[in-house]
Amino acid sequence: MPPSTPLFGFGFGAVPMLWWLVAAGAPLVIYLWTKRRYREVPWAAMEYLLAAIQKNARRVQLEQWLLLLIRTLIVVCVVLALAEPYWQDLGLKPHVGERAHKVIVIDASYSMAYKPTDVDRFERAKELAAQIVAESAPGDGFTLLELADPPRVVVGTPSFERQDLTAEIKSLKLLQGGGDLPGTIEKVQETLDRARREQPKLARQEVYFLTDLGRNTWGPNAAAARSASALREHLQALKAANTPLVVIDLGQPHSENLAITDLRCLDPYFTVGRDLTLEATVKNYGRQVRTQLPVEFLIDGRRQSEQLVDLRSDGEATASMTFRFDRAGPHTAEAKISGDLLDLDNHRWLSLPVQDAVRVLLVDGSVGEESQSASYYLRLALDPDNGANPHAQIQPEIASEGGLTDLDLKKFDCIYLCNVGQFTAGEAKILERYLQQGGGLVFFLGDRVNAERYNRELGNAPGGLNLLPGKLDQPVKAKSPPYAFNPLDYKNPIVVPFRGREDAGLLTTPTFRYFRVEPSPDAGVQVALAFDSGDPAILEKPAGRGRVVLVTIPAAATIDPDTKYPWTMWPRWPSFLPLVKEILATAVNRRGQEFNVLVGREIGGLFPVAAGASLALTTPDGRTETVRPSAAGDRWTYQDTYRSGLYQATYASLPNQTQIFSVNLNTAESDLTKLDASELPPEFIARSNWQDLDARPALEIAARESLQLWFLYPLLALVLLETFVAWRIGRRAG
Amino acid sequence: MDDSPNYLNPSTLARLHGLELRARLIVEGYVSGVHRSPFHGFSIEFAEHREYVPGDDLRYVDWKVFGKTDKIYLKQYEEETNLVSYLLLDTSESMRYQSDGAPLSKLEYAQCAAAALSYLILQQQDSVGLVTFDREVRALVRASSNPSHLKQLLHVMEESRPERKTSTGPIFHDLAERLKKRGLVLIFSDLFDDVAAMMAGLKHFRHRRHEVVIFHVLDPAELEFPFTRPTRFQGMEQMPDVMTDPRALRKAYLAEFAGFLNRVQTGCRNQRIDYVPMRTDQPLDVVLSTYLASRMTRT
Question: Considering the entire predicted model, what is its pTM?
Answer without folding.
Answer: 0.55
